[in-house]
C-alpha cells in the first residue's frame, strides 16, 4: 500500500496563505461584538464568571468554600487581569512586528503578514480594554522588572528575531491552549467573554502558525553563538511568559486575602502544570527539531515544569502534529 507524504509548505508559502486568510476573514472589535446587547451586560456577581473546579485557584478548597457571589467576582477579576496583561503583551508584539516589517523587503510575505497581524492584535486590544472598562474593576498590567524588560523585547525583532518569536509563542501558546479548552468544555461561559475568546482564538491560530513557521525556517540557520543563546534563554523566557499570562498575579491574591496554603496549592497544582506542559508542546517540538531542546538540557525544562517527565523523544514527537494552517 502506498502512502502519500504531504510536503510542509515553506515559510514564505505559509505566510502568504495566512495573509490571504486574514484578508478573507477578520474581526472588528466594535462591528463584530454586540457590546450593548442585553445578554452581554456584565454583572460582577454573575455565577457564569466563577472558575471551573478543574485546576489552579478554582480547584482549591478555599475557593470552593466561598459564597457564590464572591467566587464569581474573583473569577471575573482574574479574567480581567489576564486581559490587561494581554493588552501589554499585544503592545510588545505589535512594536516588534513593526520592527520586523521595517527590516523586510517591500512585497515580501513577512512584511505583508506582519502588518496584517498588527492590525488584528490592535483589534484584540480594543476588545480587551472595552471589556475591562465595562466591568469596572481595577486591574494592573506589567509592573516592575517585567515592565522594564518589555521595552527591550520589540528590538529583538530586528537584532535577534528568533528570540523575539520565542517570546511571542511563550505569551500566545499557553493562553490560546487555556481558551480553547474553555470554549470546548462548556457553553456556560458569559456570552460576551465567550465571543471575545472565540474571535481571539480564531485569529491567534494564524499568528501562532506564523511564529512557529518563522522559528522552524530560521533557527536551523543560526550560527553557533545565537543557537547557544537561544538554548540558554528558551526555558527561562517561556517560564516567565507563562507566569505572567497564566498564573494569578500576586496583587489579585493579596486583594482577596488568598491564604499562603492556597497559594502553594495553586503553584503545585498538577493539573495546571500539565496544562502548561500541553500548551507549550508545539514550541518544544520545533525547538527539539532544531536542536535547541536536547537530552542534555531537557532535565532543566522538566525541573521548571515546562516539559513532561517521560522520555524526551517520544514526548516531544507527540506534539509535532500542531493544529492550525501549517498542517
Calculate the terminal CA-CA distance, rounded to whole Å: 23 Å
How many helical stretches?
Answer: 15
Overall pLDDT confidence: 87
Number of strands: 0
Proportion of beta-strand residues: under 5%
Bulk shape = globular
Q: Which fold name fills CATH's third level, the topology? A: Ribonucleotide Reductase, subunit A
Q: What Rg do the Cα atoms give? A: 20 Å
Structural class estimated from helices and strands: mainly alpha
CATH architectural grouping: Orthogonal Bundle
Give the domain tally.
Answer: 1
Biggest sheet statistics: none
Helix share of residues?
55-70%
Can you write the helix and strand succession as a string? Answer: HHHHHHHHHHHHHHH
Low-confidence stretches: 311-327
Mind explaining what this structure looks like?
The protein has 327 residues and is mainly α. The protein contains 15 helices and no strands. It has a single domain (11-317), classed as Orthogonal Bundle (Ribonucleotide Reductase, subunit A), CATH 1.10.620.
Summary tags:
327 residues, disordered C terminus, single chain, Ribonucleotide Reductase, subunit A, mainly alpha, 15 helices, globular
Question: In a nutshell, what does this entry contain?
Answer:
The protein has 327 residues and is mainly α. Helices cover 66% and strands 0% of the residues.
Q: What topology does this entry show?
A:
Blueprint: H1 11-24, H2 61-64, H3 68-103, H4 109-135, H5 144-150, H6 153-159, H7 161-185, H8 191-218, H9 224-245, H10 250-255, H11 260-268, H12 270-279, H13 281-289, H14 298-303, H15 312-317
Helix pairs in contact: 1-4, 1-8, 3-4, 3-6, 3-7, 4-8, 6-7, 7-8, 7-9, 7-12
